[in-house]
Amino acid sequence: MPGSKDAIRDAAAGLFVERGYAATPLRDIAARAGVDASLIIRHFGSKEELFLRTVEERMPEAAPLDGPLESVGEDFIRFVLSSDAHVRGVFLALLRASDADGIGSRLRAVHDRFFVEPLRARLEGPDADLRARLAASLVGGLLYSFWAVRDEALAAADPELIVVRYGALLQRLITP
Hints:
Layout: H1 4-19, H2 26-33, H3 37-44, H4 47-57, H5 72-81, H6 85-97, H7 104-120, H8 128-148, H9 152-156, H10 159-174
C-alpha cells in the first residue's frame, strides 16, 4: 500500500504519546493507520523497532548546542522551555517506555547521539564525558518536573527567571 509506512509511523507516534509504549498494542496502531497488523511487522520487524524508529524520526531538529559555548546553558534551557507539544510528547513517550524489554539500551544510544555526544564534542578537559552526561541529567530533571510531574509552581514561574537560574546551573557543568 502506498503511504502505508507513513500512516503506520503517524498512527504509532500518536498512540505512543497518548498511551505510552506498553499500553499500545500493534492491532490499535494498525487500526488507526488503516492497515493489517502484519504489515507493521513486515515494514518494521517488531513493535520495539517501530517505537524506536518513530521516536528517532521525531526527535527535535536542532537543539542549540552549537552556539557560543559560554551561552549554551541559557540557550538550551530557553529552547527546552519554548518546546512545543511535539517535543513534550517525545520526551514522555521515551520516559514511559524506558523500562520495556529491548528499549532501555536503545534509548541510551539515542540519548547519547542527540545530546551527550554533540555536547561532549564541544567540551575540553579530562572529565568532558562526565560533564556532558551530568548536563543531560540536569536537563532531564527539568523536563521531568515540567512534563511528567507537572510541577505547578515551576509552570507558574517566570520563564526567563528559570532560563537564567537553571541555565547558570547547566553552564557551570559545561564550563567549570
